[in-house]
Amino acid sequence: MRKIYNFGAGPAMLPEEVLRQAQEEMLDWKKTGWSVMEIGHRGPEFSELAARSEADLRELMNIPNNYKVIFLAGGASTQFAMVPLNLFTDKKKADYVDTGIWSKKAIEEAKRYGQVHIAAQTAHQDHLAYIPHQDTWTLNVDADYVHYTPNETIGGIEFHWVPDTGDVPLVADMTSMILSRPIAVNQFGIIYAGAQKNIGQAGLTIVIIREDLIKDPLPYTPTLYSYKIQADNQSFYNTPPTYAWYIASLVFAWMKRQGGVAEFAKRNKRKADKLYGYIDQHKDFYINPVLPESRSQMNVAFSLLDDTLTDTFLREAKKAGLYFLKGHRLAGGLRASMYNAMPEAGVDALLNFMEEFAKQHR
Amino acid sequence: MRKIYNFGAGPAMLPEEVLRQAQEEMLDWKKTGWSVMEIGHRGPEFSELAARSEADLRELMNIPNNYKVIFLAGGASTQFAMVPLNLFTDKKKADYVDTGIWSKKAIEEAKRYGQVHIAAQTAHQDHLAYIPHQDTWTLNVDADYVHYTPNETIGGIEFHWVPDTGDVPLVADMTSMILSRPIAVNQFGIIYAGAQKNIGQAGLTIVIIREDLIKDPLPYTPTLYSYKIQADNQSFYNTPPTYAWYIASLVFAWMKRQGGVAEFAKRNKRKADKLYGYIDQHKDFYINPVLPESRSQMNVAFSLLDDTLTDTFLREAKKAGLYFLKGHRLAGGLRASMYNAMPEAGVDALLNFMEEFAKQHR
Q1: Which of A15, A105, A311, A340 is deepest in the core (most CB within 10 A)?
Q2: pTM surpassing 0.90?
Q3: Which of B26, B196, B324 faces A26 most closely, judged by CB atoms?
Q4: Does residue B359 carry a catalytic annotation?
């Protein structure tokens, strides 16, 4: 068992069990004699993997039958364009909720294809960020869709509720919180997520889309950016990122063995409660910039009251086996990302370190 | 050492040395304590990998300084759209050479963005396919670019010369022959290649582009499809497919240790000469459908004179450790793909099997 912990925001820590299995199977996958990465995607071996991984994800997330699951190459940034290109009607009007850097990236890309209305933005109270309640939002009933980012990795902000957009399809970039807690898929039109946090390795994106939203995209859309083409071809229109898909399949199987999403939700809540609880009790040394109601369970952004100590904190943390705690380059400070693969022992180790560090440097 | 051989067209066989190194480093890459797939792409560890792999590729292919190398997520099919979206000027006119199914896919996508002229097509002589000489082509001097596919995996057709397009940039889909033999990069405007044949695993595409061709794309181009954005950000505009990039870096290092592209060119010629030589000497049993001057070194398409024996051939070949010899679903018959990772011993084993099979079933 590894005794070191990776708090990086992504590409992020993976379950050791998954890595060991990948290691074991590297030269001989399922007695084929080959590595998964050497296997043609249209053969029976990979097709079986593809079907099983989709079935596992459907089971884990309880995905209704009227939703398609698409496995795509690339990161979630592909979806910043694919969503407007595929969902815009003649109106080309969408509402976006801006809660941070990832929302803004989605907004900038959508603006290139149509009219974007910002329905709501992160607000602040006593310098603490929070997500404004929906009764303050300005939603358009005739929008083609509403887009939001349930969890913002950089600001460490998370929705703990799902917006109600009535008949307007709700699109969610769940990259950094998918599979971290149960969600009701039928509240969403599209859910998408890059894999490199809770699913596996970078270079794979999963799209869960309600069937009635699958239609011909805007005319100049690249073929690979068409949900319809990708769905009609079961994600095999061209060669998919087979090894990344394989790692995802191992993660899904691992999650099932561990007790599924409900179990991870409990663990994630415990981990987050511990870390936020500690920070709140040590405000003379550590600061979290988010109101409790909007705090992210996955990404805890924090900083030192005396930020000249940040580099020392990072250096000493690494010596203690606590890696990649540096805040995003656009935000500074510190950040502890605690996705599903982060064991509670990792958070305990971090708290011990923070306690020691505060004692020494207070 | 594995004693089995994978003749699949891709995702294809990888060097055993590379797989063993990946296996060994799966849980601890370069003493980081982490798998490469758990490492953030902007940290020093991965940045070093990215820089080194680009330097190795530049050395292997002798890429001039006025060319950028871009590592992109997804397969070469992304380029079918990116090439026209980025190279079309106001004229929106391009010449395409149609030598098979991959050419046709590129043509279909380009037609969606502008005017495509077919400058040449595969021809036939006595039922044998060949690539017509350039003096029969109809090239437009005012085309924005000329696109061709130096090697067609499905038909088993390959150019053994480079078209001369004067001042019109030449764009080549080298997916199935990159790094198989020396090429003069400065004869090309853009070279692109999906990784799953001679470079590594599926989900990565490499683009080598002459700097003067990097400009703002057509206005509706998705941001990730802009060569300019990708080049300006050193392929780090968003999270790249880090593990696929890592595998590519191992393959490049392996190629250098083996003697570089010139050495592989010799090996590939020997392998191809052996197999074609054998087929030509046994025309009473095996058929190759391509004129010698246009035969692919990478993908040998062949069939049995009595094609009712094809399934038996495939079944018995697998028992002999010779895998994935089935022809492409659109072509039928048989196909032996022999990329750089296929050792000569694999081709010898195939020849022995073919000899035995012919004896038994003649």
Answers
A1: A340
A2: yes
A3: B26
A4: no
Distance from CA of A10 to the nearest CA of B (A): 6
Is A102 a catalytic site residue?
yes
Q: Tell me the C-alpha to C-alpha distance, in Å, between residue A250 and each of B39, B305, B316.
A: 19, 44, 32
* The dihedral sign for the CA sequence A261, A265, A266, A272: positive
Cα four-point dihedral sign B303, B308, B310, B312:
negative
Query: Alpha helix (H) ranges present in chain B?
Result: 16-24, 44-61, 77-87, 101-111, 227-232, 242-258, 260-281, 310-319, 344-361
With tokens 């859309």, the residue in question is A221
Q: Please, are residues A151 and A183 in contact by the beta-carbon 8 Å criterion?
A: no
CB pair distance less than 8 Å for A201 and B8: no
pLDDT tens-place string over residues A262-310: 999 999 999 999 999 999 999 999 999 999 999 999 999 999 999 999 9
The tens digit of pLDDT for each residue in A125-134 reads 999 999 999 9
Q: Taken in order B218, B223, B225, B231, is the CA torsion positive or negative?
A: positive
Instruction: Spot the catalytic one: A102, A245, A271, A326.
Output: A102
Instruction: Residue A113: list chain B partners with CB under 8 A.
Output: 220
How many contiguous H segments (helices) and E segments (strands) does chain B have? 9, 16
Give the burial class of B31: count Cβ atoms within 10 A of its Cβ; 0-12 exposed, 13-18 middle, 19 or more buried: exposed
Contact A196 B239 (CB under 8 A): yes
Give B249-271 pLDDT, tens digit per residue: 999 999 999 999 999 999 999 99
Residues in chain A: 362
pLDDT at residue A352 tops 90:
yes
